[in-house]
Specification:
Length: 168
């Protein structure tokens, strides 16, 4: 199987039953993507595939052959943080940090969805131009990512700030 992860192409022989999450963690030793529930309910394993967010625990690695996978390690470095990584720090958008990689990956894709004008479940008028999302809208759009510590207010502050600044 050939797969691109964080801009690096990898050729690996893997069991076709290997999840993308296990492939990233066990075969590529990328520990940033977390295994939370292993059932697609918590979002700790969220990564980007061709810019779209997915739960890597529910995906088979072989499904993404030839595709571009981006993990938290591919978004920024210690010396050059991604704007959302910096915003999570500035707004206390995390406590224990376990869910943070999935939250950040999800937020990157979610903010792009907002920029493209894609509606959510709570979008009132699907025919009208999308208004700037309020906290209710942002919470709905991030509802697939759980924080056991309850840092949701900080996370919503991060997202609101990112939208206001036009960053991410």
């Amino acid at each position: 199987m050939r797969i691109s992860v964080n801009g690096v192409s990898h050729d690996r022989d893997v069991d076709i039953r290997t999840s993308l999450l296990d492939f990233l963690r066990e075969h590529l030793h990328l520990a940033g993507t977390k295994k939370g529930c292993d059932q697609g309910a918590c979002g700790a394993c969220t990564v980007l595939v061709d810019g779209q967010r997915i739960n890597s625990c529910l995906a088979l690695a072989v499904q993404y052959e030839g595709r571009q996978v981006t993990t938290i390690e591919g978004l920024g470095t210690a010396d050059a943080l991604h704007p959302l990584q910096s915003a999570f720090i500035a707004h206390d958008g995390f406590q224990c940090g376990y869910c943070t990689p999935g939250q950040i990956c999800s937020a990157v894709a979610m903010l792009e969805e907002v920029r493209r004008g894609l509606p959510s479940v709570v979008t009132a008028d699907l025919a009208a131009p999308l208004p700037p999302p309020d906290r209710t809208e942002l919470a709905e759009r991030m509802s697939g990512n759980l924080c056991r510590c309850g840092a949701y207010n900080g996370i919503l502050d991060v997202l609101s700030d990112a939208l206001a600044r036009g960053t991410a």
